[in-house]
């Protein structure tokens, strides 16, 4: 017999084979017991749900029906575009909320009928795990693209905002905080995965600056989350936030702009034969500890015209010009092209890397990315790898555009927080990030490109090369084959805490599309 109650809050079954499922008395009793265990863990964040049958033909709530578009809409292609088409989710309807109450109604409805959904701000999530989301509802957060810099120096950021919008607003007010390098990435989405960036040596991670958030849970409950309200969830959303709900709005601490908002930026074109010397200098700086204001970035690509790999280096120093120049002069003798300037923080994305930092903003096309964290850059292995990369690219023109990136950012303000400050697990292991970003125009070379990147990720993960005992992966850069302990931490207490949060706030796995936290201890391995 089908049991159905009209309510915005619902528990719904997952992964059931039929479009309409009826429940007997035993199943209803089991769901009621499940609710009581969830309520004990999550407290007031979860209101008592009612049980509903899965019914994919049920109509959207009247109040938000007009916000739903289908594939016939002229806006469909633009509003569903993603950075990467590789192993991507698919959608058959689009929801455009205007308010957090709209999101609440939508999640109550979608979870009740067991319809998969995914919220999107920047659309840069590329993890192949997203492929489990098929024929879903895309919740596009474009109408939440607002930023307000408040009188107390905090910034209220809607989850539809990109980093470029945040930098413009916050920098325009004479303030700053850590943001990611790519200007078109969704600011809140990147933050809840940790939020690395050039200013982290001064101000910590983006998630370290998070003061509060408005989170919509699977059943439509709106949770006001901070250190004083749902503090357990506040811990979890700073490093694993995509697992628990949709964050509609976040409030960040900002800081007075360093050096009046002006930063020294130098770009260097380095020939392959000088890569070893440049890496040695970089490792010397890493071993000493990068100055808090210093950030280094390498992009290695392949120039088919000359048949050689090219190395572009960007040095940013958020401080006086003379101090930035002193660092740049260490590398300048090895460059064949050099460009330096003092630039406002608000313009850095338009000038860094010889003005090419907006290239990752282009959408459409496959991006298959692997990554690992390392204590420093193993020079011998990197030179060997770049040589193999050049050979692979020469033999595989269909993979043109594939590249290698290395980020090295300062650690002082990141390590100033204790390891249990948030769910972010890499405070002592966040010195350099190595990234292999593979793309292709010919699908037949995709498997070879994937195998190449995976092989070298595995090599750099070896403890004698990474410098770390365990594998560490920044989850915003992760693929889908890593052990989840590499993304979320190897400590048992951390895994148990995350699993308890997942069971409490997402008991049915509605937010399992992007590196889902395991629901039981054995699944961590």
Automatic annotation (TrEMBL):
InterPro entries membership: FAD-bd_PCMH (IPR016166), FAD-bd_PCMH-like_sf (IPR036318), FAD-bd_PCMH_sub2 (IPR016169), FAD-linked_Oxidoreductase (IPR050416), Oxid_FAD_bind_N (IPR006094)
The UniProt record lists the keyword Chaperone: no
Name of this protein: FAD-binding PCMH-type domain-containing protein
Recorded GO MF terms: FAD binding; oxidoreductase activity
Keywords attached to this entry: FAD, Flavoprotein, Oxidoreductase
Annotated Pfam families: FAD_binding_4 (PF01565)
Biological source species: Stachybotrys chartarum (strain CBS 109288 / IBT 7711) (Toxic black mold)
Domain spans labelled FAD-binding PCMH-type: 86-257
Family assignment from sequence similarity: Belongs to the oxygen-dependent FAD-linked oxidoreductase family.
Gene3D superfamilies: 3.30.465.10, 3.40.462.20
């Amino acid at each position: 017999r089908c049991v159905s109650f009209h309510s915005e809050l619902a528990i719904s079954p997952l992964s059931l084979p039929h479009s309409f499922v009826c429940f007997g008395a035993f199943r209803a009793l089991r769901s009621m017991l499940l609710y009581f265990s969830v309520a004990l863990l999550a407290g007031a964040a979860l209101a008592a749900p009612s049980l509903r049958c899965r019914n994919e033909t049920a109509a959207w709530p009247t109040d938000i029906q007009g916000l739903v578009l289908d594939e016939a809409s002229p806006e469909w292609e633009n509003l569903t575009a993603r950075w990467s088409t590789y192993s991507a989710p698919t959608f058959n309807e689009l929801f455009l909320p205007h308010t957090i109450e709209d999101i609440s109604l939508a999640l109550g409805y979608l979870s009740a009928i067991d319809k998969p959904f995914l919220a999107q701000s920047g659309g840069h999530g590329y993890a192949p795990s997203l492929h489990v989301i098929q024929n879903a509802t895309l919740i596009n957060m474009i109408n939440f693209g607002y930023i307000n810099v408040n009188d107390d120096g905090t910034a209220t950021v809607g989850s539809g905002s990109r980093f470029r919008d945040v930098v413009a607003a916050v920098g325009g007010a004479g303030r700053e905080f850590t943001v990611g390098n790519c200007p078109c990435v969704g600011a809140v989405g990147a933050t809840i995965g940790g939020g690395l960036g050039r200013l982290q040596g001064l101000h910590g991670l983006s998630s370290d600056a998070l003061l509060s958030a408005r989170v919509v849970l699977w059943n439509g409950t709106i949770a006001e989350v901070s250190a004083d309200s749902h503090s357990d969830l506040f811990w979890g959303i700073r490093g694993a936030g995509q697992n628990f709900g949709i964050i509609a709005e976040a409030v960040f601490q900002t800081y007075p702009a360093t050096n009046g908002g002006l930063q020294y930026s130098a770009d260097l074109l380095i020939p392959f034969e000088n890569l070893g010397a440049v890496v040695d200098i970089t490792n010397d700086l890493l071993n000493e500890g990068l100055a808090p204001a210093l950030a280094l970035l390498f992009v290695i690509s392949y120039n088919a015209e000359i048949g050689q790999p090219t190395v572009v280096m960007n040095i940013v120093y958020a401080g006086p010009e003379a101090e930035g120049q002193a660092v740049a002069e260490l590398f300048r003798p090895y460059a064949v092209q050099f460009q330096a300037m003092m630039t406002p923080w608000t313009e850095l994305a338009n000038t860094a890397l010889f003005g090419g930092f907006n290239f990752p903003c282009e959408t459409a096309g496959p991006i298959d990315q692997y990554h690992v964290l390392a204590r420093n850059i193993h020079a011998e292995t990197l030179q060997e790898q770049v040589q193999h990369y050049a050979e692979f690219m020469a033999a595989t023109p269909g993979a043109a555009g594939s590249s290698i990136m290395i980020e090295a950012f300062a650690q002082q303000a990141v390590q100033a927080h204790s390891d249990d400050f948030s769910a972010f697990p890499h405070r002592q292991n966040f010195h350099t990030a190595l990234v292999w970003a593979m793309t292709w125009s010919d699908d037949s070379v995709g498997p070879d490109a994937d195998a190449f990147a995976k092989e070298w990720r595995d090599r750099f993960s070896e403890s004698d090369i990474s410098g770390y005992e365990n594998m560490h992966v920044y989850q915003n850069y992760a693929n889908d084959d890593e052990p989840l302990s590499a993304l979320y931490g190897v400590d048992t207490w951390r895994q148990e805490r995350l699993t308890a949060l997942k069971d409490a706030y997402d008991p049915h796995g509605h937010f399992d599309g992007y590196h889902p936290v395991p629901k039981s201890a054995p699944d961590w391995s």
